[in-house]
Amino acid sequence: MAFNLIFLGPPGAGKGTLALRVKDMLHIPxxxxxxxxxxxxxxxxxxxxxxxxxxxxxxxxxxDTTVALVKEYFAQSGxxxxxxxxxxxxxxxxxxxxxxxxxxxxxVNFDIEDTVVLERLGGRRVCRSCGFNWHxxxxxxxxxxxxxxxxxxxxxxxxxxPEAVQKRLLVYREQxxxxxAYYRAKGLLVDIDANGNVETILTHFKKALNL
Length: 211
Ligand SMILES: [Zn+2]
Description:
Layout: E1 3-8, H1 15-26, E2 30-32, H2 33-43, H3 46-56, H4 63-77, E3 82-86, H5 92-101, E4 106-111, H6 114-122, E5 124-127, E6 133-135, E7 154-155, H7 162-185, E8 189-193, H8 198-208
Helix pairs in contact: 2-3, 2-4, 3-4, 4-5, 6-7
Bound molecules: zinc ion.
């Protein structure tokens, strides 16, 4: 049986990190809408050109266009071996549309405390020169605000400031709560505890999927 997985979880829940491990373990591709958009733009497909004009105008890509791009990607790539979809679907409308061209086997819900997300994202520090990600508690540079790798200035992105993280969490909870209920009702939701490190999360994941 192919694993057709979607990952649901707030920013900072470790979806990307876990996806890398699951991808290697199950030999399935990890697909984000970001990747799909970039590939279509590079290939200059009609939808790629459309999404480029939307992004260039600084607008958000609407539901219909996003669904059309994901559908096109699935049609081209086949996806028989399974997949991890990250960042899609975000709405019930997108979930309904996905169900028309692919059968999700598990909706993996990353269950995480807001305080853990705040610590993870709120502690993130980025080097202005080389872009390396430091962490105030877990992996701080030796000298405060100076990058060990390149000597550049290490700072906190506006997005990672506590008020901004709170807001991102709130937006996520509002948008996605209906989606977890949607997949729960279909018997596809798998809750995993995402409060620990990636090894712990992977253990929970394997147990939940009987791997
Ligand atoms: Zn640096």
